[in-house]
Amino acid sequence: MSDWPRQSPLDVALRGACPRCGKGRLFAGLLNVVDRCDSCGLDLRGNDAGDGPAVFVILGLGAIIMMLVFWVEFRYEPPWWLHVVIWLPLTFALAVGMLRFLKALLVAQQFAHRTTELDD
Fold first, then answer.
1. Rounded to an integer, what distance in angstroms lies between the CA atom of residue 81 and that of residue 83?
2. Residue 29 gets which letter from DSSP?
3. Residue ranges of the alpha helices (H) in the chain?
4. How far apart, in whole angstroms, are the C-alpha atoms of residue 113 and residue 104?
5. Which of 24, 26, 25 is closest to 39 using CA atoms?
6. Contact 27, 99 (CB under 8 A)
7. Which residues neighbour 30 within 8 Å (Cβ) at sequence distance 6 or greater?
8. What is the pLDDT of residue 117?
9. Three-state DSSP class for 87?
10. pLDDT digits over 57-112, tens only?
11. Distance from the first to the final alpha carbon of the chain
12. 116 pLDDT above the threshold of 70
């Protein structure tokens, strides 16, 4: 085990921080994980988030948004263009936010349980 204090996976996922030191950035851009932590030097190239976060976002957010769409449609009967104005940006923003959080949480859990080739 290393000399680094254990970081809470939930905390580092919410902040998008390095799972080892909790200080460096985890993302370069919207959803790309950095190759190496700029603070502690942790090699993050071995992480494998795979399709897990995307599946949860598609199924979970899709179900929630569709329930809200139907509720708004049957309750208020707005014109179709208002649905586009409401749901398109909301869905995009929530999808990106949820993907970042779930991807960071998965990387943090992989580091905490040493299930990938991440540095010690």
1. 5
2. S
3. 9-15, 52-56, 62-76, 80-113
4. 14
5. 24
6. no
7. 96, 100
8. 58
9. helix
10. 999 999 999 999 999 999 999 999 999 999 999 999 999 999 999 999 999 998 88
11. 7
12. no
